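Record minuted for everyone:
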Amino acid sequence: MKMGFMKTKIMISILALMPALLFASCQKRAGSRFTIRDIPKEEEARHHFAIPDIPDSYTVDKNLYVAQENGIYAFIEGGRFDYESIGSELCGGNAASIKEQYEKMKIPESDVINYAALQNILGITEIYLSDYARAYDYFCDAIQFIEKRNLPEKDSVLTVLYNNAGAVTIYLSANAPEDRRLLKASGLCSDPYMGLIIAINQAGRIKIYASGKECGIMIARANEMLEKEGQVNNSTGFVHVLAVRCIAMGNRRLGKMEEAIRVLEKAIPEIPEKQEYSLLKAGLFTEMGICKEYMENHEGALQDFRSAIAIHGKILGSESRQAADTYFWMGTSYMRAGNDAEAAVCFEKTIPGMRCGVAGDKWKMYWNAGYSFQWLGDYEKAKGYLLKAYVNIQEIIENSAAPIDEELEFDRKMRVALREIYEKNGGNKATFERWLKREAKKAEREEKQYEKFP
C-alpha cells in the first residue's frame, strides 16, 4: 500500500512539472537596471512574425550564426573578429577559453561597431556557459549603447542584439512565448535570412496549453520556413532543423506521436556531422525521446535521451538547462519502467541546471529528487532536497496575492514527508515545527549561495 501511495505522489509532481521545465525558466533578475525603450506591447508580441521572401541568388555568411536546440544567435557583421574561429570554439565545448580571451580585450567606445560586437560575443559565450542572466545583460548593455548612437548600420546591429536578447529569454522568463524583444528585432530587420531566424526563434515558443489550432499554425509556419531556407544559397541549415523540431513538437501536442517520430527519424540522419549542428541534433533526440515515452517505449526513449545527454556533456556540461530538461525526461522513463534508483539519480541531476530558476520550477525539481530518495530509503539525502523544495514553495505562497491550490497541496505533502523523516530520526510531533523552522533557515542559506541574481 505504501509503495503505491508514494509512487502516486511522485507521478503527480512529474506531471505538474512537465510544462514548467519545458517552457519556463530563469526569471529575469528582479529590479534589472535595464529599461529598453520602444519595445512593442505584450499583446502585440502574440502575433506571428513575418516570414520574409528570399530574393533570387541570395547568399548568407554562415560564420555569422551559431545555434542551440532552442534558438539561433547571430554575430554583428562588420566587426574585426574571426567569427568562424569563435563559433568553432563555442560549438567545440571551449566557451570558457573564449570568455577568458575576450573578457581581457579592451575596445574603446569610440570604436562603436567593434565595441558592440565584443559585448555580443561575450553574451553568446555566456549562453554556452549556461549563465543566461549574464548573457542577457551583455546584450542589453550593447542595445543601450547602440540606441544612443547615430550610425548607418544602427538598425542591422540592433536587429542582431534584440534577436539574441529575445532568444535567450526562453531561459529567463515565464513569459517567453510572448517575448517582445524578438518582435522588436523583426520590426527592425531588413535582411531576409535574419528575418527567417527571428521568425523561427519565435515559432517554437508555443504556449504550454496551446489549442489544436495554435499547434496547427505552428506546424504550417515551420513548414513554410523550412521551404524558405531551401531557397537560400549557402544557408546554415539551422532554420531547417529548428523547423523540424517545431513540426514534431506540434504533432506531439496534437497527440500524433507516430507522425512526430516519423518526421524526426527522417530528419536526424540528414543533419550534417559537424559540431555546429550538434546541439540542434540533441534537441531532436530529446524531442523523439519524449514522443517515445508517451508511447510507453521506455527503452527507446532512454536511448534517445542518452544520445542527447552525451552531446550536452561535450559542449555545455552537465549544468545547462538543456541537460536538466533531458535528465528530467530520463527520470520519468526510468520511473515508469520501474527503475526507481536510476529515476532518483536522474531527478537529482536536473538540479544543477535549475539552480538559477524561478521558485516555481525549483520546488518541483527538489520535490522529485527528495521524494524519490525517500522512497529508496536514503532519508538524509531526501531531507536535504525536501527542505529546499519546502523553502522554494514557501516563497511562492508568501508572495502570492491569492492561495495557489497546487502549492498549498504540496506544502502539506512536504510537511508530511519531512515529519516522517524527522520521526524516523527520533523526533516527535511536538517539536516538529520548531525543527522544521530551524532546518528551513539552513536550507535557505544554502540556496542563496547558488543564486545568480542580486
